[in-house]
Design a protein that fits this description.
This protein has 405 residues and is α/β, with parallel strands linked by helices. α1 runs parallel beside α8, α2 crosses α3 and α3 packs across α6.
Length: 405
């Protein structure tokens, strides 16, 4: 999976912060757009987990921040429901112009209501999936009901929603009453998947029943047992992504996008010289990622370089080893930063007395610790950092057997 940052302009001229998640081979069969929940953002863990699960099913997924939320431009008061729908249409148009017309809309909570309305307006959308969506757009008004009367008097006020301050105005409040969502669902006539938790305390399960009852076939329902509204458990959000990925294949023409077979080994790397430059797909038993070369040496920079991965192995192993050691010692180590740089250095610069001076592979490891640690503890952690398995492997003599298959 590879993620790229985008800036998408909506019809008011605001730049929407967006990310596009791509499958490991960079070649999505279809595109999807994800709409986040009310007052949330595209960086919510559930949004990322669902999007990234969908990439494993061959989708390119754009997740973005609605106007006035996350890192998108504009004021929150402009992020009323109709504006959310307009933002979805703007993202759809951007994808059509720069990539490929999206076929699937996925929405969480109020974002689920927004994708239902947007799907009724966008011909290229062929299927819709909602997660914890309300049956009425006005459902969210209870979250700022304490400020509605004041809005009528003052025109614009600050309210507290979910522990955060937001400014709302009369247009923001009134817009939530303009959309008859159930009527739109009745006339949608596109495959619909409704996912909802029976114990959702924010948007009750009755909402799923109303949406399902009013929708026409083909329609499906999946119960998210024991999940909370925000899908705070990563297993729940990954499950949602996988269910959507499997369900939607029923309605889209099949396209081959096979993951690589490791053939019983720990991982496999594949480079198609006819289609790609240096972009190499890597697959383990459970994960896939991309390696590439930077543009400065003729690559497309779609992923880290081979030496980036080498440095990453050392950095991650160092951090994990320090975590285990600090926990065993019950030290207050809260965060670890392991900065790694690979380079070639001359033996003379490294003060090495060699019979034949030469250039040597060199890895610089710089550590930063966050926590209530004294100097002796920090020095001990520095020593332990050199004992992580990857560090030891890189310092040992390594034998690599190569054979043809």
């Amino acid at each position: 999976m590879n993620s790229e940052r985008l800036k998408i302009e909506n019809k008011k001229g605001h730049k929407l912060q967006a990310h596009i998640e791509l499958p490991a081979n960079q070649k999505p069969n279809y595109f999807a757009i994800f709409a986040h929940c009310f007052t949330c953002s595209s960086s919510l863990s559930a949004v990322k987990h669902i999007s990234r699960s969908l990439t494993n099913h061959g989708f390119g997924v754009v997740r973005f921040d609605f106007t006035g939320l996350g890192r998108s431009e504009g004021e929150f008061a402009e992020s009323h429901f109709s504006a959310n729908v307009d933002d979805l249409i703007a993202v759809n148009d951007f994808l059509k112009a720069h990539y490929k017309a999206p076929s699937l809309l996925v929405g969480h909570s109020l974002g689920g209501a927004a994708v239902l309305v947007a799907a009724s307006k966008i011909d290229n959308i062929k299927a819709v999936a909602t997660v914890g969506a309300p049956a009425t757009v006005s459902h969210v008004k209870h979250l700022f009901s304490h400020g509605i009367e004041e809005v009528k008097q003052k025109g614009k006020v600050e309210v507290n929603i979910g522990g955060r301050p937001f400014k709302i105005d009369e247009e923001f409040v009134s817009d939530f009453d303009k959309t008859d969502l159930l009527t739109i669902v009745k006339t949608l006539r596109k495959p619909l998947l409704i996912l909802h938790s029976p114990i959702d305390t924010i948007v009750g399960i009755k909402n799923a029943h109303e949406l399902y009852h009013n929708a026409h076939h083909p329609k499906s329902f999946v119960s998210l047992d024991n999940a909370d509204h925000l899908l705070s458990n990563a297993q729940d959000s990954s499950y949602v992504g996988d269910m959507i990925g499997v369900w939607v294949k029923r309605y889209f023409p099949p396209k081959e996008n096979k993951m690589l077979d490791t053939a019983g080994e720990q991982l496999v790397a594949h480079l198609n010289l006819k289609e790609d430059n240096f972009t190499t797909t890597i697959q383990t038993a459970n994960h896939n990622f991309i390696a590439d070369e930077p543009a400065s040496v003729g690559g497309d920079d779609f992923g880290p370089s081979p030496y980036d991965f080498l440095s990453a192995g050392l950095a991650t192993c160092t951090a994990m080893t320090l975590k285990l050691y600090a926990e065993r010692k019950q030290w207050d180590l809260q965060e670890v930063y392991a900065h790694i740089t690979y380079s070639k250095k001359h033996s003379d610069d490294l003060m090495l007395d060699l019979d034949k001076p030469t250039r040597i592979d060199h890895l610089s490891k710089k550590l930063t610790f966050v926590g209530d640690l004294d100097e002796s503890q920090k020095q001990r952690l520095k020593e332990i950092a050199s004992k992580c398995p990857v560090h030891k492997t890189l310092q040992n003599e390594i034998i690599i057997d190569t054979e043809l298959t």
